């Protein structure tokens, strides 16, 4: 199998979720750093438009969104599992809540003025302005949640997380599962990037102790890879055979159609290509790029929109 290549940057919370899962499953991986804001020409040569962080590349297969990346890593390395049999639905639902509601409240809390001062300490004013403009555009111009609302919501969520940890080391038992990695990453940003605001954890010692256990998992030891090498790897590989999962059509769009896939909120840059798979869980597009060659770009079904376009 080709190497696992993670396209990411160090301060990305969603990337931290995947880095820890790679460490937990003891998978070898290579690291390509991507820009924090647009333009990201080397990344979008692979994805065809999707610009969020992180993206996983395996040869000429490009996996967008951490929910799908979790599924791919689970298939490659089933133990230790991310999806405990007894709590499968609940673990995934808590993970989805954490990646959306918890992440939104925590990041609005983290980006109050004292947090912004720490995140951008030493950065030039133009860099800060460019970052703010990029993220405001990603939110379609909408403001972040007000910081007082975010603080109250984050505190309530932390108490609920503490409740889940009263009698166990991890959210669903004695081992971390997908929910732990999703709940951890927004809290990690508070602790690591905005430590001036980390006093919010003081009322929930169970959460603090659990965060130390999560942090101890580590990232394994990534190898280095340049963006140019990653593009070469894609170009010289063939996408993996699509496994015969049943075609599920909810849109009246057949395989072979020219389509567009985009996230359904925050960061709507679409990817266009030929629909080559649509299972209950994911979509796959075939597209060709001058630099990346012929690639398959994969998206989860949940959280993404599919539309037909004229070829
Ligand atoms: N649902 C996506 C969310 C990813 C996401 O929002 N990542 C943030 C960084 S933590 C992002 O893309 N920010 C803008 C950027 O990096 O360009 C996932 O699970 O991968």
Structural class, from secondary structure content?
A: alpha/beta
**Which overall shape is indicated by the principal axes computed on the Cα atoms?**
globular
- E-strand count: 10
Q: Assign the CATH architecture of the largest domain.
A: 3-Layer(aba) Sandwich
**What's the total helix number?**
10
Highest-level CATH class of the largest domain: Alpha Beta
User: What is the domain tally?
Assistant: 2
Could you explain the architecture of this structure?
By secondary structure, the chain is α/β, with parallel strands linked by helices. The protein folds into 2 domains: 4-79 and 222-308, Glutaredoxin (3-Layer(aba) Sandwich), CATH 3.40.30.110; 86-216, Glutathione S-transferase Yfyf (Class Pi), Chain A, domain 2 (Up-down Bundle). Helix content is 42%, strand content 17%. It has 10 helices and 10 strands. The chain has helices spanning 13-24, 41-47, 66-76, 88-110, 113-119, 125-138, 147-164, 178-193, 205-217, 227-236; strands at 4-8, 30-33, 55-58, 61-64, 223-224, 258-263, 271-278, 282-289, 293-300, 304-308. Strands 5-2-1-3-4-9-8-7-6-10 form a 10-stranded mixed β-sheet, sandwiched between helices. A hairpin with a 7-residue loop joins strand 6 and strand 7. It starts with a strand and ends with a strand. The structure holds glutathione (GSH). Residues 12-14, 36, 51-53, 65-67, 99, 267 line the site of glutathione (GSH). Glutathione is lined by residues 12-14, 36, 51-53, 65-67, 99, 267.
Concise account of the structure shown:
The protein is α/β, with parallel strands linked by helices. It folds into two domains: 4-79 and 222-308, Glutaredoxin; 86-216, Glutathione S-transferase Yfyf (Class Pi), Chain A, domain 2 (Up-down Bundle). The protein has helices spanning 13-24, 41-47, 66-76, 88-110, 113-119, 125-138, 147-164, 178-193, 205-217, 227-236, and strands at residues 4-8, 30-33, 55-58, 61-64, 223-224, 258-263, 271-278, 282-289, 293-300, 304-308.
């Amino acid at each position: 199998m080709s190497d696992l290549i993670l396209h990411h940057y160090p301060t990305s919370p969603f990337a931290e979720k995947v880095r820890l899962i790679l460490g937990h499953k003891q998978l070898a991986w290579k690291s390509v750093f991507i820009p924090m804001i647009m333009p990201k020409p080397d990344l979008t040569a692979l994805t065809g438009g999707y610009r969020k962080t992180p993206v996983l590349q395996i040869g000429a297969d490009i996996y967008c969104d951490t929910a799908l990346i979790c599924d791919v890593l689970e298939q490659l390395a089933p133990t230790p599992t991310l999806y405990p049999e007894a709590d499968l639905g609940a673990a995934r639902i808590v993970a989805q809540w954490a990646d959306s509601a918890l992440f939104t409240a925590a990041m609005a809390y983290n980006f109050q003025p004292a947090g912004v001062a720490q995140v951008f300490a030493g950065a030039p004013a133009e860099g800060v302005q460019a970052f703010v403009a990029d993220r405001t555009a990603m939110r379609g111009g909408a403001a972040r949640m007000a910081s007082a609302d975010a603080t109250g919501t984050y505190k309530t969520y932390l108490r609920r997380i503490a409740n889940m940890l009263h009698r166990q080391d991890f959210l669903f038992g004695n081992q971390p599962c997908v929910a732990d990695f999703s709940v951890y990453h927004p809290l990690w940003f508070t602790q690591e990037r905005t430590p001036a605001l980390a006093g919010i954890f003081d009322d929930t010692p169970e959460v603090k102790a659990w965060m130390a256990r999560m942090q101890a998992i580590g990232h394994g030891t990534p190898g280095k890879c340049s963006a140019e090498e990653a593009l070469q790897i894609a170009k010289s590989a063939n996408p993996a055979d699509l496994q015969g999962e049943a075609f599920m059509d909810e849109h009246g769009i057949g395989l072979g159609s020219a389509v567009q896939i985009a996230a359904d909120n925050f960061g709507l840059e679409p990817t266009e290509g030929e629909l080559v798979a649509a299972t209950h869980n994911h979509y796959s597009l075939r597209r060709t790029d001058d630099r990346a060659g012929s690639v398959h770009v994969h998206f989860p079904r949940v959280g993404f929109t599919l539309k037909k376009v004229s070829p």
